[in-house]
Design goal:
Layout: H1 7-28, H2 34-49, H3 59-81, H4 102-115, H5 120-130, H6 135-142, H7 146-168
């Protein structure tokens, strides 16, 4: 459908989806600096495959699919190489553009910690759910039925509630 890499189309996609992409990257990231790396990889993959977009789904759904796939690939690569590398956990990245509410940041860290205990499918589902997508939209992205998603989301919410409740009291 889009045979030429149209800069305006690409910029429109990026502008409309950049916060969604970053939120999902942040959920999958292992340490504070990785969301930027994942974000850049997603943007690169969108640019690289923009001429393959056929319009069979909405552009936003297509972007979500790319984002989830890039994050899952990165997670698998990390899992394979984790035994062979050391991570520099002492490096902390704090965005300069806004002040951080420590209470909210703490809650986010607890939620992220609990999400990291989920399997890959559940992590993808909760990431899309937290982005306010409907079960129908999540189904288009993941290939699961709405009913299956509803059942899984009920279980995921219960797991997350059980995980996070002791941490925030």
């Amino acid at each position: 459908m889009y045979k030429q890499k149209d800069d305006n189309f690409f910029e429109e996609i990026l502008e409309r989806n950049k916060y969604k992409i970053y939120r999902i990257c942040n959920i999958y990231a292992v340490n504070p600096i990785e969301p930027q790396d994942l974000f850049q990889e997603v943007i690169f993959q969108i640019w690289k495959s923009i001429d393959k977009f056929e319009g069979k789904s909405s552009v936003d759904t297509w972007v979500y699919k790319i984002t989830i796939n890039v994050c899952l690939r990165s997670k698998m690569k990390f899992a394979k190489s984790n035994d062979k590398t050391d991570r520099f956990e002492s490096i902390h990245f704090t965005p300069i553009d806004k002040e951080i509410n420590t209470s909210e940041q703490e809650k986010f860290n607890y939620l992220k910690e609990c999400i990291s205990t989920l399997n890959e499918t559940d992590t993808s589902l909760i990431a899309l759910y937290l982005d306010d997508l409907s079960y129908k939209e999540i189904g288009v992205i993941t290939g699961l039925s709405e009913n299956h998603i509803a059942v899984k989301m009920k279980r995921i919410r219960k797991k997350l509630f059980e995980c996070i409740t002791p941490k925030i009291k």
